[in-house]
Amino acid sequence: MGIAVNGVDISDSAIEAEIMHHQQAENPLREAVHEVVLRRVLLDEAARLGIAGQGEDERIEALFACEVTVPQADDDACLRYYIGQAERFRSGDLVEARHILFQVTPAAPLELMRQTAEAILAELQAQPARFAELAAQYSNCPSGAIGGSLGQLARGQCVPEFDELLFRLQPGELSGRLLETRFGLHIVQAQRRVAGEVIPFATLKAQIADELQRQSWQRALHQYLHILVGRADIEGVELEGANSPLVQ
């Protein structure tokens, strides 16, 4: 059995043309079929309602504009969302950090570097005040010239394993173990921590309103598509209308 929508066959050529837009999908053929069928459902509904346009996309957009409406998010809704998502709306913490990097090279293999780094770490645990001196002497990072200082770092500025360790350390704390990354072995010390601040609601109100509006529109559109798909006579394929890229 072929695929048909409201008694009209869907051609193989239409699916072949659409499949090129879904090459990154897990199942490109299925996604293409669903997209072509859903588009046909929407165009049929536009025709039924007498909605015109210069092309298919314009008619579908006009259909959505007529049939899918959502209220504007008011100040109270925005404030409730702001309070409920408080962690999202704060600037990130900063940590002032320094490190000593032991870079692994063919001339300095990992085990040799590890022995040296372990010895320097033990020295720093005994004499923390020597950090800048030993960084200048041993670090393979340009920061060694300024005592190993990396300045203030936010989350995401370093490789994940460095981030994870750094933001667990307390101010002034020297890591009790070497950290291994793709750059080599690190001795890491957190220094001053600068706490992030909550961004004022007034600064974010318009952004939150837009986000709530998009969420409401997506929900309303998904509901509308499910209604249309349930009402259409679709043969040869089971379709979940809300899964289409048309609604993104």
UniProtKB/TrEMBL annotation:
Q: Which reaction does it catalyse?
A: [protein]-peptidylproline (omega=180) = [protein]-peptidylproline (omega=0)
Q: Which PANTHER family match?
A: PEPTIDYL-PROLYL CIS-TRANS ISOMERASE HP_0175-RELATED (PTHR47245:SF2), PEPTIDYLPROLYL ISOMERASE (PTHR47245)
Domain of life according to the entry: Bacteria
Q: Which UniProt keywords apply?
A: Isomerase, Rotamase
Report what the protein is called: peptidylprolyl isomerase
Upper lineage: Bacteria, Pseudomonadati, Pseudomonadota, Betaproteobacteria, Burkholderiales
Which protein family is named in the record?
Belongs to the PpiC/parvulin rotamase family.
Kindly list the GO molecular function terms attached to this UniProt entry. peptidyl-prolyl cis-trans isomerase activity
Q: Which part of the chain is the PpiC domain?
A: 92-192
* Pfam families attached to this UniProt entry: Rotamase (PF00639)
Q: Give the EC number(s) listed in the UniProt record.
A: 5.2.1.8
Give the originating organism: Duganella alba
